[in-house]
Amino acid sequence: MSAGHSRALGGPFDLALAKAVPTIPDRPQMLFEPKFDGFRTGTVIEDGRVRIWSRNGTDLTSRLPELEQAVAEQVDEGFVLDGEAVIWNGEQFDFDALQRRMGAGAALARRLAARQPASLVVFDVLAVLGRDVRSLPLADRRRLLEELATDFAPPLQLSPATHDRAVAVQWWDDLAHTGVEGVMAKRLDEPCRGGVRAWFKVKRRDTTEAVVAAVIGSCSRPTMLVLGLHDDSGRLRFAGRTGSLSSDQAAKAAGFLRPPAGEHPWPEEVPSTWLDRFAKEKRLVHLTLVEPVVVEISADAARSGLAFRHSVRLVRFRPELDPGDVRSV
Hints:
By secondary structure, the chain is of the alpha+beta class. The protein has six helices and 20 strands. The strands form five sheets. Strands 3, 4, 5, 6, 7, 8 and 9 form a seven-stranded mixed β-sheet that branches.
């Protein structure tokens, strides 16, 4: 059985996706859940074996040995689960610890699991005792999952869920300190449609400052802004990038971009993973270095150290601010 495949259960299980919306939907027949800061996983239990794969089909089983063992002990043959692998560090999610697992071999993953174990937060069930239940509405799948989860013990967890939008709004306010990224909203009458953005996600976004120290494109026609933040030692560290600029944004940005006045702290070529952590092709990307200038940006709550894990939105340039004063968020 290859990653993401189950012979008896009918082939690959593409996981449902979500589209971003600006506010928590206010409509009937919705189920709301916290949006956890981890790795989306699908888990198959078949032929006496547990397989855990990522949303993109990467086999993660050896990197999450504690979850493999827990599922084998607590879940019967013939189930397919949809959930989020997370690691807690005190009262907060630790995405960096989870990411360290992805580059680990089996032996190192076992050592990391012993020091800082992962949890699996399950929010959907796609097959039950060998029967594909994706065609059932979410309301029915949730009842099946809740019945299964009566026997869950850590590190397996049932995702909290509510039909009450007011409760979801309360989660939005109360769970931000844990690193919960926002709220998921799903229609109760929907089947599971793998690969389709039928769910809704509302992510927390904060406005903050960052330093533009390079661009993709030219100073006169930038396509993206490359951002930095100063660490505690005062060194300007790479922190992320904007999404693609509109023609109007690019024209306005060109008025603030200048070639470096002196020695620049960054190289002219950087790995593609600096700009996109999901980049499949590892290559060098050419940067056009610029004199550092401050911008105001809108970013979601996901961070890895100093860096924004997702692209950010440009709000406005702040040339009146000193780039040296812009520190980590």
